Backbone:
């Protein structure tokens, strides 16, 4: 059994090449860290660095120092809603369970 190792700096650069920032629609949904089912629906806990008004990251340039994932890592970890531009054309991508409930609530 081998542990896969890679250089984070290089992974960031490659991820940026593959998945340019401009594709992001700035909905802020991939900054949800936890979701819980409650009697009143789904309760969401967002990353402390997300500005809830603008839906923008307050530490964007330095986000990797705070443990944020690259888009490439986010895809592999399955953090994006399936309608996010970075994954909407990936047929093998599976979104986390709570995004469907959020969409149903909006309808
Ligand atoms: S879910 Fe996709 S479109 Fe929305 S903020 Fe995240 S990367 Fe951007
Ligand atoms: S660090 Fe910024 S981009 Fe990363 S999850 Fe938090 S708010 Fe979102």
Residues:
């Amino acid at each position: 059994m081998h542990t896969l190792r890679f250089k984070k700096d290089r992974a960031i650069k490659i991820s940026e090449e593959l998945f340019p920032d401009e594709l992001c629609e700035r909905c802020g949904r991939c900054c949800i860290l936890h979701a819980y089912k409650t009697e009143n629906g789904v309760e969401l806990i967002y990353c402390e660095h997300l500005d809830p008004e603008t839906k923008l990251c307050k530490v964007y340039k330095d986000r990797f120092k705070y443990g944020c994932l690259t888009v490439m890592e986010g895809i592999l970890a399955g953090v994006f809603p399936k309608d996010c531009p970075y994954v909407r054309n990936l047929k093998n991508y599976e979104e986390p369970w709570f995004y469907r409930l959020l969409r149903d609530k909006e309808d």
